[in-house]
Write a structure and sequence with these properties.
- This is Amine oxidase domain-containing protein.
- 32% of the residues lie in helices and 18% in strands.
- The protein contains 17 helices and 18 strands.
């Protein structure tokens, strides 16, 4: 159903410190024995073989954690996944997730699992406080134009005049300058998205009606609270790199039901142990080698040869505050500077059919405080396709003010908000509701956050990180980034323990030729400018 790239690459994950392997072969004969397990004795019993397996504990059961476990199980490791109590899929199982065209690694995983969880590519729309602003077609069905012409030409702007749309073109200079390098992140991360749009001449109306609402549902926070670097990275990955990248599909049920549950069963069949309600409180490590030897969960300990930590920021912060090992490491203490975003999900069963314009509808303009996406579950989810009444879900991001309200007040406010965009909603009665509250669950890419975010390797030689907030040069975002960092963490484990072959990570699609040429020219210009006397004297 989904086109797949046939080209793969090994992710450039290895630092000089951990690149132990030279001339590694992917053949089965290249897999080495456990360093403490003796020679290659074919007469050992199966129990002894099992004991020789190196033990890896994965903390977290979302896209990153299961991604790491998935590859390590295939390489013959003894893998245990610890879920902190939020259920399988945490920290990613929040609301309804879109699966965008460039999610090549996730689509490859789904094909490998032999499941078909997705809808077809869907149309969507965006609303501001003034009403319908944008209708997004299925871009791959339309003539492909060079970026950004395809996005500008094929997108149906309902209210925005052409002159306002054209003020977005100077922003391409920043898009070209931001090449996802460490230098680019440090340059743009210190300013807000609003300041970015102001510097590059976006009109007030373009910002208020298009870019502002888009960020409220893309980065889950208002533009004045969002990093310009994260804004450029997300906009390029999903909307500007290639015209068809903004095409989106959805799971035909919850992501947990359609993907995570069959995925977990597949992992269990490979020998992976899944342990729920296990909150990590500390790590024991060898003072001489610096390596983690045990993962501590209260009164329980799990011995390890390597660890992958794949949890959200808030969960890790809780662990750091309790952990004698982590609270002494600067890289982990910096994580305490980071923040999460509150999410409230509202699923409503109505007493009648109400016409919802598109399967997914991004909405903003609620006093500029938060944004939401409204989903027509009668179209998206199989279980509601034959329902005679409307079933919808609205996922609210940056929902600080909704979080403490009781269910009745949340429902009352949601009906009031959504009635601006959905005709006849006020006349419908809510016959059932399901409210989900997820405090600090999503990553907040606020200005200045980059310097506190972690890399995949840590000061513990055998402890590795994964998640959508971990620094990677892959270029992906959201669930795809989480899954990719999980594969990268698995590769670091393979490299460190010197057993197994590396996971093949599908790279993001290459820049279009004119973008590649402009970025090359921009890099040369920056190199020349850096040689000019006093070029670094003034604040950049």
């Amino acid at each position: 159903m989904l086109a797949m790239s046939k080209w793969f690459t090994l992710t450039p994950f290895m630092s000089n410190r951990f690149s132990k392997r030279v001339g590694f072969s992917n053949s089965p004969g290249s897999v080495r024995a456990h360093v403490n397990g003796g020679g290659d004795d074919t007469n050992n019993s199966k129990n002894n073989d099992k004991k020789k397996k190196k033990k890896v504990v994965v903390v977290g059961s979302g896209w990153a954690g299961l991604g790491a476990a998935h590859h390590l199980c295939k390489q013959g490791y003894d893998v245990t996944v610890l879920d902190g109590g939020d259920g399988i899929g945490s920290p990613d199982n929040v609301g309804i997730e879109g699966f965008w065209y460039p999610y090549k690694n996730i689509f490859s995983l789904v094909d490998e699992l032999g499941i078909k969880p997705f809808t077809s590519w869907t149309k969507s729309a965006q609303y501001s406080g003034e009403g319908l602003e944008v209708e997004f077609p299925v871009y791959q069905e339309l003539p492909q134009l060079p970026t950004p012409l395809g996005t500008l030409y094929h997108t149906q702007f309902v209210r925005l005049p052409l002159v306002d749309r054209l003020t977005s073109l100077p922003l391409m200079a920043a898009v070209i300058d931001f090449d996802n390098t460490d230098v680019a992140w440090k340059k743009y991360d210190s300013i807000t998205a609003r300041e970015l749009f102001k510097r590059f001449g976006c009109s007030e109306r373009l910002y208020q009606d298009i870019f502002g609402p888009l960020l409220q549902v893309g980065l889950f926070a208002p533009a004045e609270q969002s990093s310009a670097a994260a804004t450029l990275g997300l906009l390029y990955y999903l909307t500007l790199a290639h015209q068809k990248h903004f095409d989106v599909a959805f799971c035909r049920g919850t992501t947990k039901q359609k993907i995570f549950e069959p995925w977990v069963e597949s992992l269990k069949a490979k020998g992976c142990e899944m342990l729920e309600d296990k909150k990590v409180t500390d790590f024991n490590f060898d003072e001489e080698t610096g390596c983690v030897t045990e993962v501590v969960c209260g009164n329980e300990t799990y011995s390890v040869d390597a660890v992958v930590v794949a949890v959200g920021i808030t969960s890790l912060q809780e662990t750091i505050k309790k952990s004698a090992a982590l609270c002494k490491r600067e890289e982990f203490l910096k994580v305490l500077n980071l923040a999460g975003i509150d999410v409230v999900t509202v699923k409503l069963w109505l007493d009648r059919k109400v016409a919802i314009p598109n399967p997914s509808n991004a909405c903003a303009g609620f006093d500029d405080l938060f944004g939401c996406t409204v989903f027509d579950l009668n179209v998206i989810h199989d279980e509601h396709k034959d329902d005679t009444e409307t079933v919808l879900e609205a996922d609210f991001y940056h929902a600080n003010e909704l979080l403490p309200l009781n269910d009745e007040l949340v429902t009352e406010k949601v009906i009031s908000y959504l009635s601006k965009y959905i005709n006849d909603l006020e006349r419908a009665c809510v016959v059932d509701k399901e409210i989900g509250r997820f405090p600090k669950r999503l990553t907040h890419f606020f200005p200045g956050s980059y310097k506190s975010m972690m890399r995949g390797s840590t000061s513990f030689p055998n402890l590795f990180m994964a998640g959508d907030w971990i620094i990677t040069r892959h270029g992906s975002w959201l669930q795809e980034k989480s899954y990719v960092t999980g594969l990268e963490a698995a590769n670091r484990v393979v490299d460190y323990l010197e057993e197994g072959s590396f996971a093949k990570v599908i790279p993001v699609e290459e820049d279009e030729p004119h973008i590649e040429a402009l970025r090359s020219l921009n890099r040369r210009l920056n190199e020349v400018i850096s040689q000019v006397p006093l070029s670094s004297y003034f604040l950049q």
